[in-house]
Amino acid sequence: MTASIAILIAVSLIAKFLLKLPTLSTVAMIVASIIGAIPVALHAISALQNKVISIELLVTIAVVGAFIIGEYEESAVVTFLFLFGNFLEQKTLEKTRSSVKSLTKMAPTTAELVNEDGTTEEVDVDDLDEGDHVVVKPGGQIPVDGKIIDGTGYMNEASITGESTPVEKSIGDNVFAGSITDNGTITIETTSVGEDTTFGKIIELVEEAQDSQSPAARFIDKFATYYTPAVLIIGILVWAITQNFPLAITVLVLGCPGALVIGAPVSNVAGIGNGAKNGILMKGGNAVNTFSHVDTLVLDKTGTLTTGKMSVTDVTNFGKNKNEMMALLSAVENTSDHPLGQAIVKYTHDLGVTDDVKLPELDTVKGQGLVGQSDEFKILVGNERLMKANNVQITKEQRKAINARMNDGDSVVLMALDQELRLVVGVNDQLRPDAREGLQALKDAGLKRIVMLTGDNKVAAQRVAERLPIDEVHAELLPEDKVEFVKKFKEQGSTVAFVGDGINDSPSLATANIGIGMGTGTDVAIETSDIILVKSSFDALAHAYKLSKKTVANTKENIIIAVGTVALLLLGLIVGVIHMGSGMFVHELSILVVIFNAMRLIQNKSSKLDSNQVLKTAN
């Protein structure tokens, strides 16, 4: 329809200026006016039936008035520009929602189900149940959330985390619907399907967030409710005082707050769409607005500042061959599923040392470790209490090694053979490689205070804090203690964001002004947090903070542009340099400016840490 009006206007101008056919020119403008006015008028009538005085009513009155006084060119141009502005608005909103559309199109629809007899068949994803086994071949799309029970491979999880680098997955690792297997064939045991998967929840969450309103948008909606009738009254007063009907109609046209109405929603949708594209899920305009004002960031340690995965930091060997001792220790730890033990097993295997060692029968001593006794040797693996209980003497050199690990905040695993200490192994939860650079980026963006709250001991907590730009550390806290700290910071007048894993820290996430879940979209994180970082990284957290500030600033810019344009147009009308046609052109041009300004948010890119930064942080 907009295109047909444009063609008619072009025909009218050609007929008037080139063909010198004024009658044809006038007829073309009249037809263009009627075609354009009908949908605008119908929308205005529909709004009136719902007791709403809309912008379309202003445009309809203006077009009818221009038509009555014979200004057919003005009426045609007004309807064309108004409809063209709406067309651009819809196209922009569609573009900003492209992240959701692309996610929806990527949603898997079928799966290779493994039957009880070992055969496979292709079934609809909706027909799968929890506990079913599905096979995914190289290049295939993972159809469910689940755990790998057979096979290994690299997974492209860009649709879930926003990170394009493939992630290696093996038996026991979780995988997510929508991911792509770059190589390797895997068998997955299903835990969630369809809308219950992380992928499904991401789509639902982003759709809800983009439909929600920011405080600025709600204010503008309320403002427009009173603004439109006010412009109508002003137009009537102008006509009553001046008896100048064309002037009154022009006031109505120029008073249309089109750019003001579209400014806030398009900024909000563009900002949230950008976040979704980068693995950041923001629950609507309120979350964006509040996060932009955060001055205090409170973080959990384990699983947030650290990876949540234990690894060996140091091994000190006393006496015999180190590899032989590590093989023996790994064999013992392989009988347990304790995180410290599994870290040692992985470390040993990574060294290429086999742990195919014959062991005596092992007994577990609660809170201390494992004890094994055979005719050939006695082995003790555990903490220092186990050594003392079995009268193992610790030399000064060994004490120095133990203290060094403890001072670094490591958990210490000791192994003794025949009453002699042979190994001192430090195991720790590793700091996220991007934590320091990410936190510094947050401070550079305007964050005033960073606080770490943890249930770990003070030494371990302080060691982590020393390597990061953290202002306060509070250790040995229970979940309820963390909540009290968050409440205290809020009472002090701070706007607080709490970052946690969304499981143990859900009370603090709910208490803070903004709860931020760092994790792969767990149920608790999605329900409790206001912002979810699907890709657990601090560059994503820094990008989310900067993006929220830019989105709010962009909204304010759009409001200033819209209000300023209307003010300048009315001023130009008073001094006689603006008329209906030129005024409507400038008015619609302001809508374009607002739209293009908001679209800058879509292109705003997340800052990635380069390899040098990662190495610098790790050191």
From TrEMBL:
Keywords: ATP-binding, Cadmium, Cell membrane, Membrane, Metal-binding, Nucleotide-binding, Translocase, Transmembrane, Transmembrane helix. CDD domains: P-type_ATPase_HM (cd02079). Residues 105-207 form the P-type ATPase A domain. It comes from the Bacteria. It is a multi-pass membrane protein. It catalyses: Cd(2+)(in) + ATP + H2O = Cd(2+)(out) + ADP + phosphate + H(+). The chain crosses the membrane at residues 25-45, 52-70, 223-241, 247-273, 559-578, 584-602. Its EC number is 7.2.2.21. Pfam families: E1-E2_ATPase, Hydrolase. It is found in: Cell membrane; Membrane. NCBIfam families: ATPase-IB1_Cu, ATPase-IB_hvy, ATPase_P-type. Belongs to the cation transport ATPase (P-type) (TC 3.A.3) family. Type IB subfamily. This is Cd(2+)-exporting ATPase. It comes from Companilactobacillus kimchii DSM 13961 = JCM 10707.
